[in-house]
Amino acid sequence: MMLVLVGVAAASPAEAQGSPEKRIAFVVGNAAYKAGALPTPANDAGLIAQTLQAAGFDVIGARDLDQNGMRDAMRDFLTKANASGPDTVVFVYLAGYGLQYQGDNYFVPVDAQIANATDVPVQAIRVSDLTKSLSAINNRGSIVVLDAARANPFVQSNQPLAGGLALVDPDANQLIAFNAAPGTVAPQEAGPYGSYAHALAEMIRVGGLSLDDVFDRTRLRVGDLTKGAEISWDASKFKNAFNFFDRGPNAPAAAVSSAEDVANRTKPIRDFGERDAYFAALDRDTLQGYEDFLAAYPNDSMVRRVRAIVAARREAITWRETWIADTPEAYWSYLRRYPRGPHVWDARRRLEHFEAALEPPPSFTVIEYDVPPPPPPEVVYVDRPVLYFDDADFGYAPPPPVVFLAPPPPDFVVLAPPEPSVDVYVLPAPVFVPVPAWVEPPRDIAPPENNVIFNNIHNTVVNNTTVINNNTTVNENGAAPAAPGLTTGQKLAGAAVIAGAGAAALHVALPPSVQKKAAVLQKQNPAAAVKAAPGTAPAVAPSAQPQGGNAAAHVLPGANGQPLPAGAKLPANPGTAPTKQGQPPQATPNAVHNPAVATQPAQQGTNANAHALPGANGQPLPATGKLPANAGAAQTKQAQQPQATPNAGAHALPGAKGQPLPAAGNAAAVKGQNQVAKTPPPQAAPSGKPNPVAAAPKPNAHAPAAPAVVARTPAKPKAIPSNQARINSQPHVAAAPPRQANPAPAQPRPAPHVVAQARPPAPKPQAQPKPQPQPKVVQQQVRKPPPPPPQKPPEKKKCGAPGLPACH
Fold this sequence. Notes:
GO biological process, one term: proteolysis
Region (Disordered): 537-808
Structural class: alpha/beta
Distance between the termini: 120 Å
GO molecular function: cysteine-type endopeptidase activity
Strand order of the largest sheet: 2-1-3-7-8-10
CATH architecture of the domain at 19-255 and 406-464 and 501-522: 3-Layer(aba) Sandwich
Helix content: 25-40%
Largest sheet: 6 strands, mixed
Strand content: 5-15%
């Protein structure tokens, strides 16, 4: 009975906690704009996506989406959010160009062409459509971040758009954040990451911070990184408690106690020292807080900067209330307060819509605003379309004191740039910086499966290689330790790539609609859709060679979960028979044996020469008229005739089963066979038909190009290629290019066979008669030496016949 009670008591807290929290995120970084590329948004999106993965979010995202791709991706995510259930927290991060138009904010796709203000709602994505759809979902809350307040190249006319983003009110249970305060823009940054994304990623990784604290500290860090040139903004109606990470029991003591932190946020601004008062106002980020600073310290060096912040905020509030009223009287009221303000043309466009006078009439009903009119010193800051805080007249903000913001972690001060993206639409994967040891994964959440970043926020275990605090421990497989000097994130990335799990582990999944689009692009133009990943074997360029044999024979290293071979090492050639002299076949050094394809022909290795054509890279061309190589054939004697065999592989077509095609007019020797010193006598044509079309040598081959017409005389002895095992003791003689010999006069010959050229810039063949319809017969006759003289009639018997003496 006691055991039953204990079980009930233990189950009660779990029931009280309810279902575990699910976390999903949608991240987009648009950088490759037709109107002008941006250096950081794609990297910023990759950094935020990776940070959210570490916090247990199931992240989908993409980069450089056009309008159709953006709308489809948003639809995919909203479908996922609706199906995720009521215990879900949603995070959206959009980096790129953002615009405001008539009170709404728009996110600009990379293909947008916006010449006039009226093009904005047609060419861009209205953000409120997304936020309202999210607020209609019954979940634990949503967080929407727009890293998009930038000086834009659109609408270069005499009726410009207002700068930056418009002030908005978040919907219920929602937080909205901008990289720059409403009506202001962030300065252009060279990268590799923007200051806002860098600061936000740092604060997300701090354990135990509430959602409001994360964005308040992000604002202080952004001001610190930009010396006051950028001031971020957020507004929240998020009602549920939320932490990205938890603070462990072994966490170091905070520089500021909880009681002191509360006091700093409630103490009047005038009670702070002159230096700390600015950061107290910036931390609160309210119009009242900034005005209190101006009243307490009117001669401080930060007065101009704070006055500009107040001017931009007051104008943004005024325009927001004007747009909500949306009447001619409201727009006349705005024009009377700000006759040259940033929203003048928005007000006039709305007045045109109402067919009202564009200028305020002498008398009308002025609407009442929640903020007083701007004092004269403020007007100068808003009599412009765009407000920049990086003006030297505002002064440079000092670093924040420790009582408001601790210094950044040493390993998060300078972040290494990410590797270039591998595939179209895929976000860059930055080098992962492990979170501090005292930061714990959030409790009571349901992280997605196979989230390598979340499972290894401190230590990394990938492919039996454990990375602990920048030290590598080699486990069961005896893998070599990582190179010294690498960070944990670099070891994680390398181990994941070696495991064949790079895309799944370190890259963010594409939305389903974007996946389909990427697959179509890759089929249409594989060379443009797929880029070679740095540090990996280059992809084999498509050629004119016909591909034959089993597809498994051309499987790339690391595909289908197979381990990658060591760098610059070729896989072994399974199936090669022993040599005649009893020597075992010479295996490629340090080859990796793959049992899954042990019966297949040799696979492509990481070495580009594994499938080099004969004559490429300075190798001598083989003699004319030879049959293609047959991997796995048994050894023959030096002068032995090739025998017909029932095995179909003995007469495989050139290029079949993954074998490289021979060069024009030439064929590779059988691996492991001795070279035949002289041309064998004629024999019956084999049952297998050779391929009459051969590929021309590569343009960069150093050997001379083979002649277009096949030689009719016996070929000279062929040199053994340097990458082939030499079996006999014959000296290695470099073979000269095949030469066209005089035809034998013994019998008439068929028309010479013109070899098709596979790729330019091989020499053009001379005009020749059309090839015979039976290439097999032509090639066999071409390779024959002059026929033997006709046999003499049998001599008359000289004995044993009637009338002749007996034979002895």
